[in-house]
Specification:
The complex is a heterodimer of chains A (about 270) and B (about 220). Chain A has about 270 residues and is of the alpha+beta class. Chain A is built from nine helices and four strands. Chain A folds into two domains: about 160 residues, no CATH class; about 90 residues, Alpha-Beta Plaits (2-Layer Sandwich), CATH 3.30.70.3040. Chain B is an alpha/beta fold and about 220 residues long. The chains are: A alpha+beta (about 270), B alpha/beta (about 220).
């Protein structure tokens, strides 16, 4: 029971750090995936007074991935019922050219402004419709969501670090006596600190495996998948190798820093 | 005769304005049994601390087991401490370790093989009459028994020097007598140098032992 208690405090603290970190990663991935979805359905319309080559338009800004010329037929159809064919052809020639620009990724508001300016800098392009109002609202919502989650992760991190520092004092008190006694009999620093580092690493391993279990289960939990599917997002919630290695690395690093702080702060008494 | 401790003009202090031990000269022969007495606050424990290197001399020199403690490195100090056994009034046992592991500590530090260390622990537990308490934790034992564990730990690695700071200060008559017997046994049978810091010397103990008395920062040889 005492042994479980010894481990529990650090394991819980580490677990909350790992949990907030992984949640942040999941949100980050979801937003990125959602941006890809948005990018595929988001486009900019450019109006040109003379025909332009697709390659020429693509060169204007690196964010433009492809260009599609919009046919004026649907507009002309509505007007052409009483018109002669020759007039229709003449009208076609005088109408400006409409181009639908697809983007490589979902742009920031600044990138939309920059794209608009670059397009209008071209002498042939007379008008650009970037749907900035719709874009701005969606983008701000995404940013808000990301910021709220980041804030939540930072708050959890701060609270946990404070808890860990409190735990550090208890550990320092607990281990100081043992380290001092070992020092009286000539134990080298590594031997005096060995128990502490072993305990820290064991706690890091326990916390990492618990986090692995939680997220591995979560990644196949139907409700989570359903929620993400409903907004058209298909992401890897938890990568059992990469994510676990990151979690393990973070947990071991924090534990080792913690143990090192105790060893550095150790003052020999006699 | 070889000297295990040589102090020349030794001055000890914790702060710059208060001197505890002032320019004392003394030496202790290897294999001798020495008492250091003095009133509370006279500097007995301070002297013990300096002998095992927990307090560096402010002035003068202190040589223990051939090691000059004024400028000793941490690694050399560790090596020296591996040849010293220490007994404190408050036992200084590791509470979360069994008494067996506590006794084994100096052996593990000195690199003994586990099986050899285990045999040595068994012998020592019998020697201090605690073999029936094997596997228990220090707080499960009485004060006298804990001090016997501390004695066994101090003896376990056959040190060249045993430092005992008020070893019987908290003990009843029976336990005190056992501790004195163990200290005398180590000195007579193993030829270990024993330095005991105490308020008073028990009447039952030999009067042949060397005796230093500390008073007003100076150390006087009584016999």
């Amino acid at each position: 029971m005492k042994s479980v208690k010894n481990h529990l405090s650090l394991v819980i603290a580490l677990l909350s750090i790992l949990f907030s970190m992984q949640v942040f990663f999941i949100v980050e991935r979801s937003i990125e995936a959602y941006k890809v979805n948005l990018a595929s359905s988001y486009s900019v319309i450019a109006v040109s007074k003379k025909p332009l080559e697709s390659s020429e338009i693509v060169k204007i800004n690196k964010i433009i991935s492809s260009v599609q010329e919009l046919s004026p037929d649907s507009v002309i159809k509505r007007l052409s019922s009483d018109m002669k064919n020759t007039n229709v052809e003449l009208l076609k020639l005088t109408l400006p050219k409409f181009y639908k620009l697809s983007l490589a990724y979902y742009p920031t508001s600044e990138e939309v402004k920059e794209l608009r300016a670059d397009l209008l800098a071209n002498n042939s392009i007379t008008k650009v419709e970037d749907f900035s109002h719709t874009h701005g609202t969606t983008y701000k919502l995404l940013l808000l969501f990301k910021n709220v989650v980041s804030l939540f992760a930072i708050v959890v991190l701060i609270v946990t670090v404070l808890l860990i520092f409190k735990e550090l004092r208890i550990w320092q008190y607990k281990h100081n006596e043992r380290m001092t006694i070992m020092g009286l009999f000539g134990a080298a620093l590594w031997l005096r600190s060995a128990v502490l580092f072993r305990l820290a690493i064991v706690d890091a391993l326990i916390a990492s495996f618990l986090a692995f279990g939680i997220f591995f289960y979560m990644s196949s939990y139907p409700w989570v998948l359903e929620q993400l599917g409903s907004i058209g997002i298909n992401i890897v919630i938890f990568n059992p190798i990469n994510d676990f290695l990151i979690i393990l690395g973070v947990a071991i690093s924090i534990s080792i820093v913690l143990a090192s702080l105790i060893v550095i702060g150790h003052k020999e008494e006699a | 005769m070889n000297k295990v401790i040589i102090a020349r003009d030794l001055t000890l202090s914790y702060s710059s304005n208060e001197t505890i031990i002032n320019k004392v000269n003394f030496s202790i022969d290897s294999g001798s049994f020495v008492f250091i007495t003095g009133a509370s606050g006279s500097g007995k424990s301070t002297l013990v601390k300096s002998i095992f290197g927990a307090l560096k001399p402010k002035q003068g020199s202190l040589v223990v087991g051939g090691v000059e403690l004024n400028r000793v490195s941490r690694s050399k100090l560790n090596l020296l401490r591996r040849h010293i056994g220490i007994v404190f009034q408050d036992y200084k046992l590791i509470k979360e370790w069994t008494i067996d592991k506590n006794i084994m500590l100096p052996l593990l530090i000195n690199g003994y093989v586990k099986s050899v260390a285990n045999n040595q622990v068994d012998k020592l537990l019998k020697h201090v009459r605690l073999n029936h308490q094997s596997g228990k934790y220090p707080l499960e034992l009485s004060g006298g028994e804990q001090q016997r564990v501390a004695m066994a730990r101090a003896l376990s690695h056959n040190p060249i020097l045993i430092l005992a700071d008020e070893p019987t200060g908290n003990l009843d008559e029976y336990s005190s007598q056992l501790i004195w017997n163990l200290l005398e046994g180590a000195n007579s049978q193993l030829k270990t140098t024993v330095i005991v810091v105490t308020h008073h010397i028990p009447k039952t103990i030999s009067t042949d032992y060397k005796h230093f008395h500390i008073e007003y920062g100076s150390i006087n040889e009584i016999r």
